Amino acid sequence: MTAENTVTHGEATATDAPTHGVELSEAAASKAKALLEQEGRDDMFLRIAVQPGGCAGLRYQLFFDERTLDGDVFRDFGGLRVVVDRMSAPYLQGAVIDFVDSIEKQGFTIDNPNATGSCACGDSFN
């Protein structure tokens, strides 16, 4: 049996649920929240997953989801819930997700210290 982390907040004590190691920049959290608000959905969260595919072997998936899977781990970023499934969590440990909006590029970017290589187009990694 493993010990759970307990945090004391003033007079109340809460038990921390398991979380993932993905970090979300303020720009990425703001953009994701704006997209959810635009859709009028406050019941969804941002899911980040790693799936087989692409020319380098693994591909990221970012999408809004309302379902939960056994083993999902959650974190909150300023009111945006971000979930990672248990199979993807090790591949995403320490990854930083940002949102870039420049003349050259617009979209979410992922800086993943676990990726040892990627394809030329940057769509997949290994």
- Content of β-strand: 35-45%
Find the CATH superfamily: HesB-like domain
Q: Tell me the number of strands.
A: 10
Overall pLDDT confidence: 81
The biggest sheet, with number of strands, parallel, antiparallel or mixed sense and barrel status, is:
5 strands, mixed
Pfam families: Fe-S_biosyn (PF01521)
Region (Disordered): 1-22
Domain Core: 22-123
GO biological process, one term: iron-sulfur cluster assembly
Please give a handful of descriptors for the protein shown.
5-stranded mixed β-sheet; iron ion binding; 4 iron, 4 sulfur cluster binding; disordered N terminus; HesB-like_dom_sf; mainly beta; 2 helices
In brief, what are we looking at here?
The protein is mainly β and 126 residues long.
Write the layout of secondary structure elements.
Elements: E1 6-9, E2 12-15, E3 23-24, H1 26-39, E4 45-52, E5 58-65, E6 73-77, E7 80-84, H2 89-92, E8 96-101, E9 106-111, E10 124-125
Parallel strand pairs: 3-8, 4-7
Antiparallel strand pairs: 1-2, 4-5, 5-10, 6-7, 8-9
